[in-house]
Structures are given as C-alpha cells and as structure tokens.
Amino acid sequence: MEIAVVGSMNMDMIVHADRIPRKGETIAGGGIEYQPGGKGANQAVAMAKLGASVTMYGCTGNDAVGKELIDHMSSCGVNTEKIQTVEGVPTGQAVITVGEGDNTIVIIAGANDCVSIAYAEANRESILKADIIVLQNEIPEETVEYVIRMCHKCNKKIIWNPAPARTLDRELLDMITYMTPNEHEAGVIWGEKAESMDDLLMHYPEKLVVTRGEKGVSVNLKEEGIITIPAMKVDVKDTTGAGDTLNGAFCVGLSKNMSEKEALRFANAAAGLSVQKYGAQSGMPALADVERVLEEA
C-alpha cells in the first residue's frame, strides 16, 4: 500500500539538561544538538524505516536547513519529490529541552504555514493515489480540514494525529478512520465533556486510539472492549519522537493488513525501541528490530 503524509518538517534544536527547568528558572545545560524533526517528517521517516512506501507532502524554506531535511528524508527512503521549496520563508524549527526522560517543545512554524489549500489542491491527484493519508496539526488548520474532506469523498483511509491539540469540527471526526491523540491532547479536544478516558473510548470504538506514555496505548475494540497495550519496560533516554514513531508504525501495520490490535502491538514495540536512543528520527527503529522484539515478547 502507498502512504501519503501531509504535514510538517522542522529542524530540532535539542538542549540536554539534568531536568526540565521550572517557570522563570535558569539551569545549566549538558549539551546541544540539531536533529531533523517535525511531526509530518518524523512519521514519514518512521514508516520508511519500517519498509513502507511513503511520500511526504509539505514545505521548506529555500535554505540550507530545508535542503538538509529533504536530503535526510530521502536517505531514509521517503519519497520527497512533492516537497515544495518556498522563497523568503525560513524552514520550520523546534526548540526541545530534554531532561529526566521527558521533554518540552516550542515550535516555530516557518514554511510549514505555507502548506496551504492551494498546495493541497495542486497535489490532489498524487495524494489521492495513496491508500492511507496521514495528517497532524503542525500545518494550517484549514489545510488539514480540506485534505480530510477531499480524501473522505474518495473513501480513503485517513489517520489524524491531532497534535498540537486544538478544538475540532466534530463532522471531521466522522470522516476519518482513526484519530490518535495522547491523553493531554484528548483532554484539550474534548475538554470537560468526557468524565473519563474510558468514556471517550466507548463513544468512538475502533476510531479513537489514545497514547498514554509509559502506560501504553488504549483502544476500544468491538469484540474485546477497551484494552490497553502496555508500553515496553525499557531504559528511557529520550521521548522525543516516540509518539510519532508509534503513529508511523501503526500506519505501517495497517498497510500490512494487520488488525488494530496487531498494528498497535507493532507500534508499541517500535516506540519502545525509539525512546532508548536520542533524537526523533535518529532513534527510530528498522523493521527487523521491531520484528525481533515482537518475537521475543
């Protein structure tokens, strides 16, 4: 199956510290590095490393950083032919602080804001050739909605990772195949309307997939009810990109005609491997590594 990712590309500036500073606090850092990132690019790279056929749709600036991001994705096996280079706009960036196995992230959109409806329309024919279309929220809201409606009309399988979280048009939820928020994002999207996470999962069987950090990932399966597939017990070094790895691997599992439960077990294993290395894309595992973990489980 072909997968299309319509989303963001960033260069991540990663600052390592003993812990994440509190509000108004200054602490010493242990080092700084630059790594390719952006939720769209991360998920595309995760898929490509796991053997999927994936095309990236998005925008970079006409700068050295943009060229580096495109070259890196291409080297990982992502089809980058549809990426647009935009003049006069910098490539997106993210500032990430990593400490105590967790992170905080601040995003500067840059050229990601140029992933417009016009860009999506110009690539309509190519996007609709894919079997699975994957979106996140680091590109303009109107573009995400346009692509969802466009793909729904053609009965495409749509996976929406609603991060960063924002309120959404409930009509769009009916159009997509899966939504994959984490617990915090689910809280932002539904607010106080849901009494618990189980309530939400009960309302959206086999559509809502909630990632829960070290707890694992939860879904409501029609035959089994609400289940939580536990996260791997590993030595966590860096959670940056773990959610993107899980999302990418889940899509790969679906492309291989796995059941939802099988695809989530596959995705959980990939995410568990990713947090044992530093960096979002650099920590993403190959297919053989995930298969080995599943065989040993």
From TrEMBL:
<keyword id="KW-0119">Carbohydrate metabolism</keyword>
<feature type="active site" description="Proton acceptor">
    <location>
        <position position="244"/>
    </location>
</feature>
<feature type="binding site">
    <location>
        <begin position="243"/>
        <end position="244"/>
    </location>
    <ligand>
        <name>ATP</name>
    </ligand>
</feature>
<keyword id="KW-0963">Cytoplasm</keyword>
<dbReference type="GO" id="GO:0019303">
    <property type="term" value="P:D-ribose catabolic process"/>
</dbReference>
<feature type="binding site">
    <location>
        <begin position="38"/>
        <end position="42"/>
    </location>
    <ligand>
        <name>substrate</name>
    </ligand>
</feature>
<comment type="subunit">
    <text>Homodimer.</text>
</comment>
<feature type="binding site">
    <location>
        <begin position="10"/>
        <end position="12"/>
    </location>
    <ligand>
        <name>substrate</name>
    </ligand>
</feature>
<comment type="function">
    <text>Catalyzes the phosphorylation of ribose at O-5 in a reaction requiring ATP and magnesium. The resulting D-ribose-5-phosphate can then be used either for sythesis of nucleotides, histidine, and tryptophan, or as a component of the pentose phosphate pathway.</text>
</comment>
<feature type="domain" description="Carbohydrate kinase PfkB">
    <location>
        <begin position="2"/>
        <end position="286"/>
    </location>
</feature>
<feature type="binding site">
    <location>
        <position position="277"/>
    </location>
    <ligand>
        <name>K(+)</name>
    </ligand>
</feature>
<comment type="similarity">
    <text>Belongs to the carbohydrate kinase PfkB family. Ribokinase subfamily.</text>
</comment>
<dbReference type="InterPro" id="IPR011611">
    <property type="entry name" value="PfkB_dom"/>
</dbReference>
<feature type="binding site">
    <location>
        <position position="279"/>
    </location>
    <ligand>
        <name>K(+)</name>
    </ligand>
</feature>
<dbReference type="GO" id="GO:0005829">
    <property type="term" value="C:cytosol"/>
</dbReference>
<dbReference type="InterPro" id="IPR002139">
    <property type="entry name" value="Ribo/fructo_kinase"/>
</dbReference>
<comment type="pathway">
    <text>Carbohydrate metabolism; D-ribose degradation; D-ribose 5-phosphate from beta-D-ribopyranose: step 2/2.</text>
</comment>
<feature type="binding site">
    <location>
        <position position="238"/>
    </location>
    <ligand>
        <name>K(+)</name>
    </ligand>
</feature>
<keyword id="KW-0460">Magnesium</keyword>
<dbReference type="InterPro" id="IPR002173">
    <property type="entry name" value="Carboh/pur_kinase_PfkB_CS"/>
</dbReference>
<keyword id="KW-0067">ATP-binding</keyword>
<feature type="binding site">
    <location>
        <position position="268"/>
    </location>
    <ligand>
        <name>ATP</name>
    </ligand>
</feature>
<comment type="similarity">
    <text>Belongs to the carbohydrate kinase pfkB family.</text>
</comment>
<feature type="binding site">
    <location>
        <begin position="211"/>
        <end position="216"/>
    </location>
    <ligand>
        <name>ATP</name>
    </ligand>
</feature>
<dbReference type="Pfam" id="PF00294">
    <property type="entry name" value="PfkB"/>
</dbReference>
<feature type="binding site">
    <location>
        <position position="274"/>
    </location>
    <ligand>
        <name>K(+)</name>
    </ligand>
</feature>
<keyword id="KW-0630">Potassium</keyword>
<dbReference type="GO" id="GO:0005524">
    <property type="term" value="F:ATP binding"/>
</dbReference>
<dbReference type="GO" id="GO:0004747">
    <property type="term" value="F:ribokinase activity"/>
</dbReference>
<feature type="binding site">
    <location>
        <position position="182"/>
    </location>
    <ligand>
        <name>ATP</name>
    </ligand>
</feature>
<feature type="binding site">
    <location>
        <position position="244"/>
    </location>
    <ligand>
        <name>substrate</name>
    </ligand>
</feature>
<dbReference type="GO" id="GO:0046872">
    <property type="term" value="F:metal ion binding"/>
</dbReference>
<dbReference type="InterPro" id="IPR029056">
    <property type="entry name" value="Ribokinase-like"/>
</dbReference>
<keyword id="KW-0479">Metal-binding</keyword>
<keyword id="KW-0547">Nucleotide-binding</keyword>
<keyword id="KW-0418">Kinase</keyword>
<keyword id="KW-0808">Transferase</keyword>
<dbReference type="InterPro" id="IPR011877">
    <property type="entry name" value="Ribokinase"/>
</dbReference>
<feature type="binding site">
    <location>
        <position position="138"/>
    </location>
    <ligand>
        <name>substrate</name>
    </ligand>
</feature>
<feature type="binding site">
    <location>
        <position position="240"/>
    </location>
    <ligand>
        <name>K(+)</name>
    </ligand>
</feature>
<protein>
    <recommendedName>
        <fullName>Ribokinase</fullName>
        <ecNumber>2.7.1.15</ecNumber>
    </recommendedName>
</protein>
